[in-house]
Amino acid sequence: MDIVLGLQWGDEGKGKFIDLISENYDITARFNGGSNAGHSIERNGRRITLKMIPSGIFMKGVQNVIGTGTVLDPVSFKKEILNLQVFDNTVQPENNVIISLKAHFVLPTHKLLDVFMEESPDYTTIGTTKNGIAQAYSNKILRQNVRVGDMFAPDFKSRVQHILERDYKMLAAEGMSLPSLEEISNEFFEAIDFLKNFNCTETEIYLNAALGEGKKILAEGSQATMLDIDHGTYPYVTSSSTIAAGASSGLGVSPKKIGEIFGVAKAYCTRVGNGAFPTELFDEFGEELRIKGNEFGSNTGRPRRTGWLDLPALKYAVMINGVTQLVLTKADVLSGLKSVAVCIHYELEDGTIETNAGTLPENARPVFKWLTGWDADFSVIKDSAALPTELKDFLSFLEAELEIPVGYLSTGPGREEILKMI
Ligand code: IMP
Hints:
Blueprint lengths: L1 E5 L7 H8 L5 E4 L8 E5 L2 E5 L12 E4 L4 E2 L1 H14 L5 H4 E4 L3 E2 L2 H12 L13 H10 L13 H18 L7 H15 L3 E3 L1 H10 L4 E4 L23 H8 L9 E6 L2 E3 L12 H9 L12 E3 L1 E2 H11 L3 E5 L9 E9 L5 E2 L10 E8 L16 H14 L3 E5 L7 E3 L2
Parallel strand pairs: 1-10, 1-11, 2-5, 2-10, 5-7, 6-8, 7-9, 11-15, 14-16, 15-19
Antiparallel strand pairs: 3-4, 12-13, 16-17, 16-18, 19-20
Helix pairs in contact: 2-7, 4-5, 4-6
The chain binds inosinic acid.
The site of inosinic acid has 21 residues, from α5.
């Protein structure tokens, strides 16, 4: 089993890369997160953002697993499937999406609670996507949630109704203005009926049997390393395990079965939501980068914060995941600059040099190394040998610092605009 995951704060361009390589696999599998993800894929010049559906969905013959470590919102899933069928009517998701019986549900009140907690002065504002992700995962840990397999039980409806009513009582007492309970529960149970058309099974058994038959699995990470619940910039993180080890636990596949670990990173950094971002740019260039790189959330549309590449954070992510190949994206967005900055360490308020991004303090000041910029028309570059020397030097610098090869270089937003480097 190989893994693709993000090394920064998400939005590194994982969807496009997975779409490219998924033809080499029999199965793509999501192991964490839910509808908070936004993996953008291009098809015939049009773009679709997948939230819950694995990115191998367009590949004929590829099975797409929604694994145990994910949280599934049936209402959002139904909308996504209907959208997908409008986008491409040749796709048959009922035949090639397989859902874990042990994946947890995101309930309608989880989404309301997410909005409430984000807006209430009594809680830290994280800047979430308001998809109820933290509420579903916290109820899972509390052992108070319902799972996909529960939808076949005769008391499922009453169990869900009980949770919805309990949450409603609490939110109403807090003074939140709420949609009608009847409306949201009807919408939920209609989506559950829709979900029952899909193959819901023990995906652990399915995946391990597939490996036993020599089939190839690509595990698809959502969000990214610096948003990991344990190793990210807590509390400004998501609520799941976004790292390579999370693929193993989220899919029920032994770490011994992991092969290649592709780490996707941009040539600069972006972040949506709150939290530490030492290399953030607040000047005109930061805005220019946002526009040129089209840095607006694919899920929520929020403008992304932009900044220079953060090498200590990237080294940390490579270490945590055991990345075997770097997939670098958006170097083309930096084209035309005289020089390009990379943060090589931080300086703390007392003047101490800090190279460890594991406990990234809010006030860490970036210390930059400036490298010569590159200028090229990337649309005509079809071979790594034709890359500008300055960009080759930039890539060599990263390879030496991170001690891993650059396996792929994305040279533009289009599906074909990617170079295999090794
Ligand atoms: P949540 O996952 O919706 O609870 O949001 C927690 C944090 O993770 C927020 O800062 C979000 O902006 C961020 N986040 C969640 N999903 C993504 C994603 O797919 N890309 C980038 N950031 C994300």
